[in-house]
Description:
Layout: H1 3-15, H2 18-24, H3 29-43, E1 48-51, E2 54-57, H4 59-86, E3 90-97, H5 99-116, E4 118-125, H6 128-136, E5 142-145, E6 154-167, E7 190-194, H7 202-212, E8 218-223, H8 226-234, E9 239-243, E10 257-258, E11 266-274, H9 281-297, H10 300-303
Parallel strand pairs: 3-4, 3-5, 7-8, 7-9
Antiparallel strand pairs: 1-2, 5-11, 6-9, 6-10, 6-11
Amino acid sequence: MDIQKLRYFVEIVEKGSLTKAAIALNMTQPPLSSVIKKLELELGVQLFDRRGKRLILTDTGRLLYNRAKNLIASADTIMNELVEQNKGLKGQVAVGCSTNANLTIIPKVVQRINDTSNIVINVKEGNTSYILDELRNHKLDVGIVRNVFKKDDLHNEILFTEPLMLALPPNHRLLRKKRDVRIEDLKDEKFLLQATTFGHGISEIIIEECQASGFFPNVIYWGTETLPMLNMVQMGLGIAFLPKSFLKLESFNFPPIVEIEDSRLVIKISLVTFKDRIHKASTDKFLEITKGVIDDMYDFTELYS
């Protein structure tokens, strides 16, 4: 089956007439009509119900139209991959991630990609639920998330696990303790927590650990981003938790940060892709480079020291 004939057929369906399709394709109407008749003969089916000058799509034609669009998209993807490879990998990758990942991981990835290829990175910031929806709608190629979840249609590759640290207001009483802070020391504190929109996130981990220590945290604020919470901690409004890798943001004015003794408070960073995605060379290259960047950025013995 000639893909070009399918392109002509789809154009006719979407334009609604041979005349409009011929104009869009920059060709005359008789050759276009001939192509469609040859396609019908080749397939042994009637694609249009011809009533005077009107072309009405048959049920068989509707089926071919839906399938043809997918075939054309796949053919275009193959051609784009070949062109990317031939030109030294040129393409675009749509990435969804948190603000933290956009501040820490993405700049290093962009720097390394610019050194080796011509890939353009389009970043959308958002929570895990938003990122997964965009992946399913094929508006994103890759997601970088912190939440733990299991979905049959998504491939979730854990890149690393890191401990959570505790942010305290300046001059807080716990800063005067001669030993490390324990979870039970936080029983009377006001908590600022990250709202989880999907899966098992930071807030669930913290609440479970508090309950295991005999209390339920007094949460006075739910937010989606950690940096605004750290500003609130600096103002003395409560305590917050942050991944240890946040401390790599050298330009940020952090409140006092302490470790939690014998804590099981850890989070995982994952790369997420749609399992049935059409593989693009540019996306595969992005995934490869991102894994390398994270390996270089994070000394995993240092994260736990």
